[in-house]
Design a protein that fits this description.
The structure is a single chain. The protein is an alpha/beta fold. It folds into 2 domains: about 10-35 and about 70-160, Rossmann fold (3-Layer(aba) Sandwich); about 160-285, 2-Layer Sandwich (Hypothetical Protein Tm841, Chain: A,domain 3). It contains 11 helices and 13 strands. The strands form 3 sheets. Strands 10-9-8-13-11-12 form a 6-stranded mixed β-sheet, with helices on both faces. The chain has a 4-stranded parallel β-sheet with strand order 2-1-6-7, sandwiched between helices. Strand 1, helix 1 and strand 2 form a beta-alpha-beta unit. Helix 3 crosses helix 4, helix 5 (about 125-140) runs antiparallel to helix 6 (about 145-160) and helix 9 runs parallel beside helix 10 (about 240-255). The chain is globular.
């Protein structure tokens, strides 16, 4: 597809993404839901369970909820619908390291029409994935080609920051996301860990005890954002701490009133692994 090609590009993503209902409607984004199993009952993310309801159910569940990628059949159905009028479908999904979603999408694409479907591993999730989805939609509206959009997404990925504070290690240990190291760390009293994600890999950035550790972490993030003039958009994505996040948002806005700042609950896909009290700060440095 060339830059002047008039073929319509339709954007697809998954339900771990952090987007507002208004953004989804404005750009006609197709969101393919993952599923969550809580004590044997299966829920479809965003369809028959809300983000807030999920946290309540997670807290009373006997076992750690399990998340599942969309089925190949669902992807086949969606791809057929989106490409039926000759459009090209661009799918942007959460990191392969977190889910097999993009692999299921690839298998489905081969069954439909791989020439009409392009898939991108966002290497992130949540709003870090959402920023890429929005950029792709805006690029498509501007008439840019698939190759141009992919190059732009790579640039965003390379300049993305996803930092997370995990204050309750129960879920992340049960889920085995960080291996034996986390289990050893968790034996310490009141331990919290700061995680970072880059190139699809989650790693422990630092660890400490209690609220003082979280406050120092917040201070450092606010300081970083204040210094990076190329940062125009920031998201605070949380599991169950809306008041604390709005307080942190106020701090950031006082220093950088120019910022486009979103504060929103994260998806069950993230919450089930991050656990209660967790939150993330997501932003990227835009290139001129």
């Amino acid at each position: 597809m060339k830059g002047k090609d008039l073929t319509m590009i339709k954007v697809m993503t998954d339900s771990s993404v952090q987007l507002t209902p208004e953004e989804i409607e404005k750009y006609k984004i197709t969101v393919v839901p993952l599923s969550i199993t809580i004590d044997g009952k299966v829920y479809t993310d965003g369809v028959d369970i809300t983000r807030r309801d999920f946290v309540q159910k997670m807290e009373t569940a006997h076992e750690l909820p399990k998340t599942s990628q969309p089925s190949i059949g669902l992807f086949v159905q969606k791809f057929k619908e989106l490409t039926a009028d000759g459009s090209h479908c661009l799918g942007i999904f959460l990191a392969k390291s977190l889910s097999g979603t993009i692999d299921a999408a690839r298998q489905a694409a081969e069954m439909v029409d791989p020439e009409k479907i392009t898939l991108v591993d966002s290497r992130f999730t949540d709003r870090a994935e959402g920023y890429q989805v929005l950029a792709a939609c805006q690029d498509a509206e501007a008439g840019r080609s698939i190759d141009e959009i992919k190059a732009h997404l790579k640039q965003i990925q390379d300049n993305m920051h996803l930092d997370m504070m995990v204050v309750n290690l129960k879920n992340i240990i049960k889920g085995g996301r960080l291996g034996k190291l986390t289990g050893r760390v968790a034996t310490l009293l009141n331990i919290r860990i700061a995680l970072t994600m880059k190139d699809g890999v989650i790693s422990i950035q630092r660890k400490g005890r209690g609220k003082k550790f979280s406050k120092k972490y917040d201070d450092d993030i606010v300081s970083t954002i204040a210094k990076l003039s190329q940062v125009k958009k920031v998201c605070l994505s949380y599991v169950d701490t809306p008041e604390l996040m709005h307080q942190l948002a106020d701090r950031i806005k006082n220093i950088r009133p120019d910022l486009d700042l979103l504060v929103k609950e994260t998806s069950p896909i993230i919450a089930t692994h991050a656990g209660t009290g967790a939150y993330a700060i997501l932003f990227y440095a835009e290139q001129s």
